[in-house]
Amino acid sequence: MSRAIQDIITAQHATEGAGFPIRRPFPTPQLDNLDPFLMLDEVGPVDWPPGEAVGAPDHPHRGFETISYILSGEKLHEDSTGDRQILGPGDVQWMTAGSGIVHSEMPSPAMRAKGGRAHSFQIWVNLPSQHKMAAQRYQFVAGDQIPLGQSDDGLVSVRVIAGEAFGVQATIDTYTPVTLQDWTMRPGGRAQPAPPREQQMALYLFQGNLAVGPNEEQIEEGQLVIFAEGDSIDLALDGQAESPARFLLFGGVPIREPIARYGPFVMNTREELQQAFDDYQAGRMGVITR
Question: Domain 5-252 is of which CATH architecture?
Fold first, then answer.
C-alpha cells in the first residue's frame, strides 16, 4: 500500500544564531515536531561577502542529537569535549549531546575571509529517556564516504546518511531507528522507496518541483510532506521538468514520550529541564578551550 499524504506544510523564513537566514518547516505554530525529529532548518542558501559570514557562537545542548549536513561552504565545529573540525561540502556531523555539551558552529576562517555561498541543514533528533544522559558522541562522515544509491536507469541518486536506499546501507549509528537521505531526481525519474513501515516518514523539497503520493500531487520548493502509514512512497518528476528535484527523505520510529523543551535543552519533565539550566550555569557542561 502506497503511503497517502497526511499533510503539506510550507517552511517559514526566519533568522538564527548571529544573523543567518533559514527556512524552517518545523517547529512552527503549525507543526511542533515530527517524532523523533525535533527540528529541521535549511540554513541559507546565502552568499556572504568577504568578512561578513556569521554562524552560531558557543551554546549548550542536552537531551538530543544534532545533525549538520553541509551542501556548500565550510563550517568550523568546536565543542567542550575538545573536538574541533572543519566541515565542507557533502560532509555530515552527527553529534550526540546526551548529558550536556557546549559547541559552536561558525564559518571556517577561509569562509570568513573570502566569503562565499553557505547552504546546509541543521537537524535535531530526540533521544529516548534512557539515553538522554548518555555520554557525548561525535560521528563524522566525509562527503566522499557517504554511501550512494542509484536507480537502474541512473535518473535517481541517493546519498544515504541514515537508513537504506537502493540496497545501500548507511554507516551512521543511531540510538533510535532513523532514515535520513538526500535524494536527487532528474527529469523522467521515478522511485518507490519502502522505508520501514513502523517509521513516521516525511519529505522536504529544497530544489525544484516533485510529484508525490498515490495521486501524484505536485509540491514546490520549501514544502514539507508528511506521509500516512503504508508500505512505500510514490515519487516522480515529469520528463519535461526544467531542472532536477532535490529533497530530504527522513523519518523514524516515534519515541512517544513527554517532551519538556526550552531553547537548547530537550528533556521529559520540567524538573529535568530546570536541572539542565542549573548544570549549564554551574559550568558542569564544560567550556570550549581555544
Answer: Sandwich (2.60)
**Beta strands, E only, 132-285:** 137-141, 148-150, 156-162, 164-165, 168-169, 178-185, 190-191, 200-207, 209-212, 217-220, 223-227, 235-236, 245-252, 260-262, 265-267
Is the CA virtual torsion 216, 218, 219, 224 positive or negative? negative
Q: Which of 180, 207, 183 is nearest to 122 (CA)?
A: 180
- Is residue 17's pLDDT more than 90? no
Residue 232 has what DSSP assignment?
Answer: B
Output the CA torsion sign for 57, 246, 10, 255. Answer: negative
Nearest CA among 145, 36, 137 for reference residue 87: 145
In one-letter notation, the amino acid at residue 227 is: F
Residues whose CB is less than 8 angstroms from the CB of residue 271 and which lie 6 or more positions away in sequence, other chains included = none
Taking only the tens place, the pLDDT of each residue in 158-217 is: 999 999 999 999 999 999 899 999 999 999 999 999 999 999 999 999 999 999 999 999
Cell numbers given for 62: 542536552
Closest to 250 in 3D by CA, of 188, 205, 190 = 205
130: helix, strand or coil? helix
Residues 56-83 as b or e (16 or more Cβ within 10 Å = b): beeebbbbbbbbbbbbebbbbbbbbbeb
Report yes or no: 77 and 83 within 8 Å, Cβ to Cβ.
yes
DSSP letter assigned to residue 2: B
**Which 3 state secondary structure label does DSSP give 213?**
coil
Q: Which strands form 75-79's sheet, in the order they lie side by side? A: 56-61, 101-107, 75-79, 84-87
* pTM score, whole prediction: 0.96
pLDDT tens, position by position, 248-280: 999 999 999 999 999 999 999 999 999 999 999
Residue of 189, 200, 164, 221 whose CA lies nearest to 3? 200
